[in-house]
Fold this protein.
Amino acid sequence: MRVLPSLTLNQRLGVLALALGALAVFANVAPGHTIKLNARELLISVDRKEDHVTPAELAAWIIEGRNDYRLVDIRDEKAFADYHIPTAENIPLATVLDGALARTDKIVLYGDGAVHAAQAWMVLKGRGYTRVYTLLEGLDAWKDEVLFPVLPQSPTPEQEAAFERSVQVAKFFGGQPRAATAPGGPPMVMPTQAAAPVVAPPTLPAGAVPGPRKKREGC
Amino acid sequence: MSAPFYKLGAFGDEANLIVAFFIGIGFGFFLERAGFGSAKKLVSQFYLNDLAVFKVMFTAIVTAMLGVTYLSWVGFLDLSLVYLVPTYWIPQVVGGLVLGVGFVVGGYCPGTSVAATATGRLDGLVFVLGFAAGTLGFALAFPLVAGLYTAGDLGTKTLPQVLGIPYGALVFGVVLMAVGGFVGATWLEKKMAPKAAPATATE
């Protein structure tokens, strides 16, 4: 058995390679940024509409002052500063995995439209976040349905009653109803955002359809 | 995880080209210093009396493999982002045979022919011109060979996946192969050297 000092440089390098190779057997080289999705589970949850909340549902949650979920705005900081849904926190799309969200959180994601939130939704699902939802059709739908609701032409009495409620909701969030007929209509002026985070309003009477009692500043 | 730098956004496109330029210079320099600017040295490989090509290339493979493994292990490199050439086994077998024949006949492989040209060797330059003409010919004839080009598509495959063994075990296996190969190559060189004198091997 030869000892190390008597070896040539090449032989020593060979021994080093062998040692590193033997140690590499224990290497954990699991990729850090990949996700694993169960395609079937994903498609079924989308098909059952378990992947989203509607703007009306979200509006009701905010009015009720529910705090069992986190509303996450995945747009950039500037867009968030210009307008965001009350109670939302800003976690830009590229940073959703950076540790601000926990796997046990119930999370509602939204962007301007539907696509970015759905992409973030899929990434979070793949990372084992089980209770992730998107706001259906994003801020666009939030504007159309919650902030600036439209009374359908020749409405039925039920539609009219529903519209009355949505007008109250719209006013609560600082929007206003639009007339159905005017194509241009009054411009949709986004409510200005209060600098301070919006405080959740008082809870609704149990079982009531969202009907805010009091308008808070800034929301 | 901060590497691969380019894919994780540390380099832009321009910086990437600059880095590639310097890596290329280093690659060319060491190819030349290993003696691979000479067709005689390169083809000695096939007469089994100088296995420097085998040793250098396998050393490079083992060094890079261990480096990548350990960088990944300490969490610096995301291996899943390292680009892997997809396997199209039929064209790759055909291409390997063409390259092998061309290597023995012409005395160079593509990279070493460029290194030889840079050192002023005329045969290297002829090889590079042939290599460019062949590439152009392939491009022009592509419609005829398009079917071959994508035949035998197996997707992106790695040996640990195909063999169903852990990544680290494969790394160790390759190191064993390499070190065994070096020992065997040195033995073979000694055995072959008296029979085939370098002067008569290639000229």
